[in-house]
Amino acid sequence: MGHETGSTFTGEKEVDTTDSVGTLQISDGDAIESVYFDADPNGKQTTAATIDEDPDPLSLGPVAEFSVGDLGSTTPAHTASVIEIPFSEDVSKAGGAAGALALGDNITVSVDGEDVTSRYVLDADGSSGGRVVLSSGTALGPRANASVRIDAVNDSIDTETIRPGVVDVAVTDATVTEGSDADVYENATVAFVANGGTEDVDQSFEVVDESDALVFAGRTGSGSQAFVFDTAARNWSGGYEIETRFDDGRADERTDLAVRALELDVAVDDRTLTTDDPVEGTVLANTGGRTVEVALADESGAVVARANETLAGNGETMIEIGGDALAAAGPGNYTVTVTDVATGTASASEAITVVDAALRTAAFRSSVVGEDAGDVVDIGVELAYADAVTVTIGSGADGFRANVTVDDRNGDGRVRLRFNTDAVVGETALPADGGDVFAAAPPRGANATANVTDAVVAADVDDRYAIEGSLAVGEYELGVRPGTDASAAAESVGTLVLDAPAPESLATWVAPAGTDFGAFEDVEAAADAARLAPSAEVAVGDIVVHRIVAPGLAGALASQSGSTAEAFFALAGTAPGDRHALNVTQADPGANAEAYQLELNHSNADVVADPANDTYVVAYRLDGPGAADDDAVGTRESTAAPGPGDALTVEFAVNESGPFDGLDDTERSVGGEYALVEGWIAIDREPVVVAAAANQSIGGRTTAAPGTVLDLRIRSANGSGAFLKTGSAVVDPEGNWRAVFDFGNRSVGENFTLTSSVGVVADDAELAVAGVIRANATNVTNATTPNGTAASGAGGGGAPGGGAPGAAVGRSGGGGRVDAIATATARPTAAPTESDGSIADSIREFGEEIVAEVTNDRGEPLADRLSGFDVVVVVSFLSLVGCFFFVRYV
C-alpha cells in the first residue's frame, strides 16, 4: 500500500504479560502484538514481534575438519574426521523446533565433489551453544576439497533465518589439543582445539615463540572450540607455546608446540637411463605413514607420470615409475619430485638423462688383462649413458664364475674394478659391497682428487665352482654390460690371463739414520733426492732398506687388517696360511759360534708396498752410536748383537702353498748380502787450509748414508780473534761431502778447529782437526781416513782406495733396480799413520807458512812494505827453504 505525506495512523498496543502492579515484564521469546488504524485503507491493522535478547544477528563461523576424540561436552562417535559447524547462537531447522537439524535434510557433506553424507553421524545438533558436530571413521586426505551444504536455519526462537548454502571446510593436517604438547611439521595446516580448560567455546589464547615474544593472539570464535592456522603462511619453524586465557585475562592452560622440518628427500638409483628403463629410487623422510606424491617431469616442468606413495614406518620407501612413461615421453632430461601431500613440502632429485636405448654402452679398456695368481687384478671399463656396469669373470667351462656391479658415482664414464684373486678362494657367497674379493679403485687423472668414488653395489660367486687352494693359472672369460642385470647379454668381452708367480729380486739399499717410510711415495721421494741408494755396506745406525719384487702376495696382503707392516709380518712364517719369510742372518759367525738372525717385526721395521708393481720395501735400523734401543732391530739370540765388520745374508722366500704351490725350490727365494761398517768421517787434508775470502770449500769422505746431513762447526783457536762459524754438508751417493764457509771477514794467520756431528759416528771418532787461514789456499783432497789410508782425487769426486772403512763405500750410483749386491770385504784394523807427501808438496806447504808469518794483519806481504829490499827477501826465503830441506830429508 502507498501513503503520502500527512497520512495519519491511530491505534493501540497490547502486551500479553503484566505483573500485579502493572509493570511490563518481557523476556526472550515473548510476543508483542501491535494493533493500529491505517486511514489510507480505512481499516484496522495488526503486527506482531518476538523479544530476542541477543542483539547480534545469527551468523556462521569458519567450518573446520580435524581429528579429535573429545570435545568436552561432546564426544564424537568417530575420531578420524570431525567437522565442526559453529553458529553464533543456538539454531534449529527453519520453521521447526530447536535442535531439529538433521543430516541429509538440513546438512550434507561433499568431498572432492562426491556426496559422503552417509559416512558421517550427527554428534551435536546446534541446540547447545550453536555448535554442530559431525564425525566419520574415514579420514580425509590432506588435499581433500570438502564442503558442507546448509539449508535455511533459524535461531532457537525462529526470529532470524540464514541460508548459508555451500560452505568450504578447512581440512587440517594436524590437531593440537589444549594442554597436550605436540609436534607438527613445517608447512602443515594445524587445528588447535580448546577442550581442556573452562571456557572451551569462543576461547581466547596467545601464542609466544621460544624467546617468549608474542606471535599473535586470537579466539576460537562463537560456537567453536577450534582455531585453524597455516604454519606455512605464518612461516613458523621451531618452538612455540599456546596459552589459553579466561575472559579476565588470567592464564588457563599452556600447550607446547614444536614445528619441525620434515626432511623429505628423494634419490634416484640411476641418473642415466634409456627409453626402455623404469625410473627407480628411494624417498626418505624423518617420519613414516605420510602420503607423498611422486611426479616425473620433463625440462619444461610438464608432468609425464604421477603416483601417490605412503611412506613406510621408518620413513623410507622405494619408488618406481614404469618404463612406459619414458618410452612415451622420449629422450631428454627429467626430474623426479616428491611432495608431502599434507604440508606441500617438496624435494627434487638430481637430473636424469634419458637417451635412446641404442646409445647406452659398456666396454673393457683392454680386451686382455694380465696378472699373477694371488695378486689383485685391475679391470678398467668405459661406459656411456650408464651409471653402472656389471662384469662377469669366468664361466662354467673355466671352473669359476662371478658377477659384480660397479656404480660410477663420480660420473666420469670410467670404473676400475679390483678383483682379489687370493680372497676369492673358498668363497661361496659375497656381501653386496664385494667384501674382500671385489672393490672399486679410486679414480685417476683429472678425477683423482674427487670426493666421490665409485662403489661396488652387488656381487656374487657361483657356488658350484668354489675355489680351493688358489685360483688356477690360466685364462678366464670376461664380459661386461651396462646396468645392473647380470643376466643380460654382454656387450663387450675379454680375457683374464693369470700367470704363475715367483719372487724376482731382492736389493739392499741404505738411507740416512732417522728416515721414516710411511708410504711408497716416501721411498720414491728419497730416491729422487739422493737420500736412498743401493749399497753393499751400511754404517751401523743408518737405515737398511730391502727392496723386494715378489708377485703373488698382493691379494693376501690386501685381506689383512692393520698397517702394511702388520699385514706383511702377519703373513710371515711357516704355519698354514703363511706366505713368506724374510731372513737376515749373520754370514760368518766365526769358529765355534752360531750365526745370529735378526728379529724383524712390525714394531721395529717399516714396510711400504707398491702392489701394482709387486714391490715391497722393508726398512729397519741396527743399533748405532747414541741410538735408542726401543726401535733398533735385535737378534733372536739374546747374547748376540750386530756390529761393524759383520756380514749378513738376506733371503726372501715364499712358502709352498696358495699361488706358489708347485714352484721349484730354486724359484722360491731371492737374496743378497750386505756388510755392517763403522760410521766414520774424514777430511780431505790436515791441517785445513783456507783463504781469508768467501766461498772456501772444505770436504771429505764418510760412510754415512747418502743424503745424510753433516753438522760442521769452526771455532777460533790459539789466541786468534774469537769467532764461530757453523755449516752443513750433504753426503752424495759416492760418500763424498763438501761444505762452503765465508772467511772474508777473517785475517791471515788466524787458527781454528773444525769439528763434526754425525749421527752414525761415535763422539770420539768425530772430526776435530786444526785449520789455518793463509794468503793462498789450494783445495788438495788427500782425505785421510781413520785407519790411515789416503783417498785420492780432488774436489767433489773420486773413489777412495783399498780396505774398509777407508775403502770404497761400495755404492753404485744412480738408483734403479739392483739385482746383485757386491760382497763386503773385511774391515782392516791397521793403526793410523801419517800420509807421505812429495818433496814438492812439503816445500810448497812450508813456503806458504813462511809467507803467512811475514804478512801483516791486513794481508800485505812484508816485501811490499820494504821497497828496495826485494832481493833480501828472496834470498832469506831461499835460505830458509834450504834449511828445511836439509833437516827433513838429509
Descriptive account of the structure:
It is built from seven helices and 62 strands. It is mostly beta strands and 890 residues long. It has an eight-stranded mixed β-sheet, with no helix packed on it. Strands 24, 26, 27, 29, 30 and 31 form a six-stranded mixed β-sheet that branches. Strands 33-41-40-35-36-39 form a six-stranded mixed β-sheet, with no helix packed on it. Strand 48 and strand 49 (615-621) form a beta hairpin. The longest helix has 20 residues, at 870-889. The protein is elongated. It starts with 8 loop residues before the first strand and ends with a helix. The model is unreliable at 779-785, 787-878 and 883-890 (pLDDT under 50).
Question: What's the layout of helices and strands?
Answer:
Elements: E1 9-15, E2 31-38, E3 43-50, E4 63-66, E5 81-86, E6 91-93, E7 107-111, E8 114-115, E9 120-125, E10 131-136, E11 146-150, E12 153-155, E13 161-162, E14 165-171, E15 174-177, E16 182-185, E17 189-193, E18 204-209, E19 214-219, E20 226-230, E21 238-245, E22 251-260, E23 265-268, E24 272-274, E25 279-284, E26 291-298, E27 303-310, E28 316-321, H1 323-329, E29 332-340, E30 346-348, E31 352-355, E32 361-364, E33 368-372, E34 376-384, E35 388-395, E36 400-407, E37 414-420, E38 438-440, E39 455-461, E40 474-482, E41 492-499, E42 505-511, H2 520-528, E43 533-534, E44 537-539, E45 543-549, H3 554-559, H4 564-570, E46 580-586, E47 598-599, E48 605-610, E49 615-621, E50 634-635, E51 647-654, E52 669-677, E53 681-683, E54 688-691, E55 696-702, E56 709-717, E57 724-730, E58 736-741, E59 751-757, E60 768-774, E61 783-784, E62 790-791, H5 839-853, H6 862-865, H7 870-889
Parallel strand pairs: 4-14, 15-17, 16-22, 24-31, 33-41, 44-52, 54-60
Antiparallel strand pairs: 1-2, 2-3, 4-5, 5-10, 6-12, 7-8, 7-11, 9-10, 11-14, 12-13, 17-20, 18-19, 18-21, 21-22, 23-25, 25-28, 26-27, 26-29, 29-30, 29-31, 32-34, 34-37, 35-36, 35-40, 36-39, 37-38, 40-41, 42-43, 42-45, 45-49, 46-51, 47-50, 48-49, 51-52, 53-55, 55-58, 56-57, 56-59, 59-60, 61-62
Helix pairs in contact: 5-7
